[in-house]
Design goal:
Blueprint (H helix, E strand, L loop, with lengths): L1 H4 L4 H9 L4 E5 L2 E5 L2 H21 L4 H8 L16 E2 L5 E2 L4 H12 L2 E5 L6 H14 L5 E6 L15 H19 L2 H9 L3 E5 L11 E5 L7 H8 L7 E6 L13 H9 L5 E5 L9 H19 L1
Helix pairs in contact: 2-4, 5-6, 6-7, 9-10
Length: about 300
């Protein structure tokens, strides 16, 4: 009940704020609703949707609770299926949590190359990493290769301490965060030592042919056109590639076009290549992340009009 109600009943308070004329009280393992018949039915439907989601995924979040309160019920629809990608270290099932995340899973299953484009927190990288780990566990591939362009976001790599490996490690940290939820630290270390899992900057991909591998290019919006072409042409036999990126967070010089945008445009109709676009409705981080993204998008649109 603590997980379901949230810290200090924060999730139930979120529901209560939408129905100020009614009263929601938690007592032990029961939730009592006092109010008009119509509001009681609405609140009951919301709580049932929350319970359904909690039993399926083992957790709730502010964003998810807000979505069901605001009748954005696509997040909670039962058309998500019960497919478990893998089980996390703590034993809970990792599954697609939104319709677009489910589309991404299906696209990866059906295509050898997939572009996943969407805002921060929409789960594109996490789902791709989960699919990579599953493919490795099922022996569909022999190794996982994850890469990112080492492009500074307003900072200079030269000012960071340490050798090249130490300098690029912060750029690859989000990948490690995802992997560490799915593979124990000790096993991950062993898999990296024997090169079954390889995490490296994009420049290290040049000249290679990647056979029998699940290859993920993350933060692809920061690739140039030539870098993207170089990466895509590394694909070998019995391999899958997933390219993820957020086109609203390009850190390239202003006069340089993103290789991701160009590749999606050029290759969208090529057979065997899938493209999945995620949105703020897929954001499963803190509830404010969705509002922040929408605010910046609105600012960008207003400036373009001006």
């Amino acid at each position: 009940m603590v997980d379901f109600l949230g810290v200090e009943n924060e999730y139930i308070k979120e529901v209560a704020m939408a129905f100020p004329k009614s009263k929601i009280v938690s007592r032990g393992n029961e939730i009592l609703i006092k109010g008009s018949a119509s509001e009681i039915l609405q609140i009951n439907d919301i709580l049932q949707s929350m319970a359904q989601h909690y039993h399926k995924y083992g957790s709730l979040s502010h964003q998810l609770v807000q979505s069901v309160v605001n009748r954005e019920t696509e997040v909670f629809k039962d058309d998500m299926g019960d497919e478990t990608l893998i089980y996390a270290n703590k034993g809970f099932a990792i599954k697609p949590r939104t319709p677009n995340q489910k589309k991404l899973v299906e696209a990866i299953q059906q295509n050898d190359l997939v572009f996943a484009v969407g805002p921060a927190g929409s789960g594109k990288t996490f789902v791709a990493v989960a699919m990579a780990v599953r493919a490795l566990k099922n022996k569909e591939v022999q190794k996982i290769i994850i890469t990112r362009p080492a492009v500074e976001a307003g900072e200079n790599l030269g000012f960071l301490p340490g050798d090249l490996k130490e300098k690029i490690h912060p750029y690859l940290r989000p990948i490690y965060d995802a992997l560490e939820e799915m593979i124990s630290a000790e096993k991950l270390r062993v898999l990296q030592e024997n090169n079954t899992i390889e995490i490296a900057p994009l420049a290290y991909m040049r000249g290679r042919t990647l056979n029998k591998a699940f290859v993920l290019l993350d933060e692809a919006q920061n690739t140039t056109s030539m870098q993207m072409k170089m990466f895509l042409t590394r694909m070998g036999t019995h391999s899958k590639m997933v390219v993820t990126g957020d086109q609203s967070q390009v850190d390239l010089p202003r006069n340089q076009k993103s290789g991701l945008a160009q590749a999606v445009d050029l290759l969208s109709k090529v057979k065997g290549i899938g493209t999945v676009v995620l949105s703020t409705k897929d954001v499963v981080r803190h509830r404010l992340v969705k509002n922040i993204i929408n605010a910046y998008d609105k600012y960008s649109i207003d400036n373009d009009k001006g």
